Amino acid sequence: MRRLMLFLAALAVAAGAGGADGELIAAPFDAAHWELDGGDIGFATYLGEPALRIHQGSAMLRGSDIGTGTIEYDIAFQAEREFPGVHFRGREAGDWEYFYLRPHKSSGWDSNQYMPVIGGAATWQIYSGAGFNSTETYKLGAWNRIRIEVYPNSADVFINGVRSLRIPELKSSSTHGFLAVDSAAGAGNTTGQVYYANFRYRSAPNARPADMPAPPSADLPGLIRRWQVSEALGADDAGRRAAAMDWAGPRWSSLPVERHGVANLARAATRAGLKRFAIARFEVAAEQPATKMLRLGYSDIARIYVNGTLLYRGDNSQYSRDPGFLGIVGLHETLAVPLRAGRNEIAFVVEENSGGWGAQAQFVDPSGLASSAFDESP
User: Fold this and answer.
1) What global pTM score does this model have?
2) Residue 243 near residue 237 (C-beta atoms within 8 A)
3) Fewer C-beta within 10 Å: the chain N or C terminus?
4) What is the pLDDT of residues 207-266, one digit of tens each?
5) How far apart are CA 21 and CA 14, in angstroms?
6) 112 φ/ψ sector (left φ>0, alpha ψ -120 to 50, else beta)
7) CA distances in angstroms from 274 to 73, 123, 245, 289, 302, listed in the order given
8) Within 10 Å of residue 377's Cβ, how many Cβ atoms?
């Protein structure tokens, strides 16, 4: 449960699908069924229903284990800045699938969010857009019915009887595990409450629908598709190693990018205290000296070294550029990279604070370049 609360703290900075066979199992909100954790959470009655009230906290369903099946519950809230959601396929190591709402963004493109949680860390800055968010208008001060059909590697989300979000690919490595609900109060929300009621579920086979779309994928020439990623390091250690091209000592992982082209560094490195920096690097060979344009993205803060020389430093953190800036990872910037004939080392030193630890890069014109990093295979 400590993992759930660490995650909550970071997060704060057609009608009815044909589901699995069998009846849904009711899980009343009481101490016999739910293990509560958090500073402002408790059982209550709301709008005539036995409910779970949360301002800040989480509740794990005792004895639950779901891989595929159906999850259904009612939820009520006002328009305060709050992030209430459901964990499924949860593991105590801090990995689970997560679908949550943003009541204060009702009717917006990002009124809700699917993302995997990896090692207790949020990843919404990496997973954004189609397959991760949908536009939904919520009922305020009234019950909203949420239903999630979980398939072997995908899911559908229905809100108030209408399919709202199709998730073509579930991203967590966890294939089954516990159920939990939570909410995290956002900045400025000191009193807002979220209420859950009528929680039901079933764990049973549930085949992927034939009309589920394929996951979107990045088909970009010159995209870096495999990175060498260090374990989490301190700031000085990471910077020194990138400048000296000293790769001996830390544990390294060969990390393929996600289908949409972003490397999720949390799959290779686990942030711990001041060790919140990872080196993500690749080699590229040039036929002759050339300056190549490199499109890039990262989260949250990055320094980029080419053959040991620092060429770039940028901050893509949420709110770092304007009050509405989200820091979503994408190929939003371009850097002129001087390459020498033969082998070149390019290293991103990426700092993670919250929302997702990511890196992305693409050579605009990869002619005259060769690299195993262009290949997805190890």
Assistant:
1) 0.92
2) no
3) C
4) 999 999 999 899 999 999 999 999 999 999 999 999 999 999 999 999 999 999 999 999
5) 19
6) beta
7) 39, 19, 22, 38, 16
8) 8
